[in-house]
Amino acid sequence: MSTTTRKWSGLGAAIQRADDAKAHDTAPATQVRQPAIVPADGTPERVLFDADAEITEADARLTALEERVRDGDDQVQPDDIEKARGLRRWAQLRREAAVRAAHPVFVRRDGDMEIWQKGPATVLVPVVLNSYPPELREAVQIRRVAVFEGCCPCGAEVRVTEAGHYSIGHMVTCPGSDEVLVPLATAAGVVTQRRNG
Ligand SMILES: [Zn+2]
User: Fold this and answer.
1) Quick one: angle between helices 44-70 and 78-100, nearest 10?
2) How far is Cα of residue 155 from the mean position of the Cα atoms in its chain?
3) CB within 5 A of ion ligand 1: which residues?
4) Residue-wise DSSP of 46-72
């Protein structure tokens, strides 16, 4: 049980660490890294790839227009700049939608935790162990399903940002929330800690 206890400790903190590590090695949205190979049609990776390309193109168009104004080109009207800026914003929002909808992909199992990739975010998900009491098993299962489905019956929605930050705000009464899950885990002898603790 000691291994379980140690691995379980800090699920939230582990997710936060993964988030932080990811945030550090993720390029800002303006420096989108293109995969070397174009992903296959119809895959979530392809949707992101296309969204990245749209942003790059919109950026270039806006930058070129602004540069023309700086060069004294009076053919460029304020509306042209506004339209290019609006398209840039729209492309960004479309990419965010693609990130949010990204299908989670299993990376590997590490003891009683699993590592999944959801868009740019790396997420650690606890495995439901038979040694857990039923209430804890159910709570962990709800937590897992929320990660995979992207939402929870409590109304929480998974949010994944461009920088790879992952969050889900379960209602405090939801079994998947820290408020319910952590005391259940503690009662079962599984040490947990808060996301920032
Ligand atoms: Zn929930």
Assistant:
1) 160
2) 18
3) 152, 154, 156, 170, 174, 176
4) HHHHHHHHHHHHHHHHHHHHHHHHHTT
Q: Position 97: which residue type?
A: A
pLDDT in tens, the chain (197 residues): 444 333 343 444 444 444 444 444 444 445 555 546 888 887 767 777 888 899 899 999 999 999 999 999 999 999 999 999 999 999 888 887 777 777 888 999 988 789 998 877 888 888 899 999 999 999 999 999 998 888 899 999 888 776 778 888 899 999 999 999 989 998 988 865 433 22
- Residue spans of the domains in the chain: they are 2-27+103-187, 29-100
What is the distance in A from the centroid of ligand 1 to the CA of 151? 8
Q: How far is the CA of 145 from the centre of ligand 1 (A)?
A: 9
Distance 181 CA to ligand 1 centre (A): 11
- Does the pTM of the predicted model rise above 0.85? no
The rounded Å distance from CA 148 to ligand 1 centre is: 12
